[in-house]
From TrEMBL:
A Pfam family hit: Abhydrolase_6
InterPro entries: AB_hydrolase_1, AB_hydrolase_fold, Sec-Metab_Biosynth_Hydrolase
GO MF: hydrolase activity
Keywords of the record: Hydrolase
Annotated AB hydrolase-1 domain residues: 5-271
Entry protein name: Alpha/beta hydrolase
Organism of this sequence: Streptomyces bangladeshensis
Length: 286
């Protein structure tokens, strides 16, 4: 029986970014479902102050629907989708970037729903909380100035993270492109940037949300390294792999590598679709 790929987006993203990958998967004969986590996709808030001409003062104070959404909410939503997908056969859960945190919590809670879990340059915390990893040497090369310069408002007051991805500041745009899509064209970068939503939730998890050996650790797992990623450097991706392997040495990661920045694999998805197609062949047939 054909597996279903369940695709989980990263921060400020949504299901829309998976459309080209889903097209490639479909043309290879694979079934896929792209998830919008709570407060994402058509549930996102786009304040009028975000439109042109922009009102940055208004944008800094406008309420957002994602306020109060927790990591537990994300995991519960994802588990509901996994339950539905599992009725049709095997499930391969694929997460990108911050989406890996949600995928990990869902795997901790319901390993029975997942036949393989795939992290594409994604967070799978084992030894530390995600926020703590940012202070580690593997993240020392990350240039956070672009995203920091795009941030609007006080997260503590808004109850969410807000970024002005519609900025026209050439320095900020250049920094964001270097961080996320240095190997893409300017037009590809601007097209992708315009699929981002301004708001993201604050909750990145606690020690209880790290990968658990007795649940998460039972699931066959793959890590897809993105060799040109500068926002989650290869050194940190490799650390995620080492920590996961140390937690479950009897069930190590199957490791694959794509030549890609953080986002290029979604802009030019044919290589990623082939990798995922290879993994589909490893799924159980019941």
């Amino acid at each position: 029986m054909q597996p279903t790929f369940v695709l989980v987006h990263g921060a400020f993203a949504n299901s829309f970014s998976f459309a080209p990958l889903q097209a490639e998967l479909g043309l290879l004969g694979h079934r896929s479902v792209a998830v919008d986590l709570p407060g994402h996709g058509f549930a996102a808030t786009y304040p009028s102050a975000y439109q042109a001409p922009q009102d940055l003062e208004g944008l800094a104070h406008a309420p957002g629907s994602i306020k109060g959404v927790t990591l537990a909410d994300n995991a519960t939503h994802l588990i509901g989708i996994l339950e539905r997908a599992k009725r049709n056969g095997p499930v391969i859960l694929v997460s990108h970037s911050r989406g890996g945190i949600t995928a990990t919590v869902a795997a901790n809670r319901r390993p029975d729903l997942i036949d393989r879990i795939v992290y594409v340059s994604a967070w799978c915390p084992v030894d530390l909380d995600v926020s703590a990893y940012y202070a580690e040497p593997e993240m020392a090369t990350v240039d956070v100035t672009g995203l920091a310069s795009a941030m609007v408002g006080n997260p503590a007051e808004l109850g969410l993270l807000r970024a002005n991805f519609r900025t026209a500041d050439p320095g900020v745009l250049a920094s964001l492109k270097a961080a996320f899509l240095a190997d893409g064209t300017d037009d590809e970068f601007m097209a992708f940037l315009n699929t981002f939503q301004p708001d993201e939730n604050l909750d990145a998890g606690t020690p209880d949300d790290r990968a658990q050996a007795d649940t998460w650790g039972r699931i066959p797992k793959t890590y897809v390294r993105l060799s040109e990623d500068t926002s989650m450097p290869l050194a940190m991706q490799d650390r995620m792999i080492r920590e996961g392997d140390a937690l479950t040495p009897e069930n190590p990661y199957d490791v694959r590598t794509l030549t890609s920045s953080h986002l290029k694999w979604l802009v030019d998805p044919a290589p990623a679709a082939r990798v995922l197609g290879d993994l589909a062949a490893l799924a159980p047939t019941h």
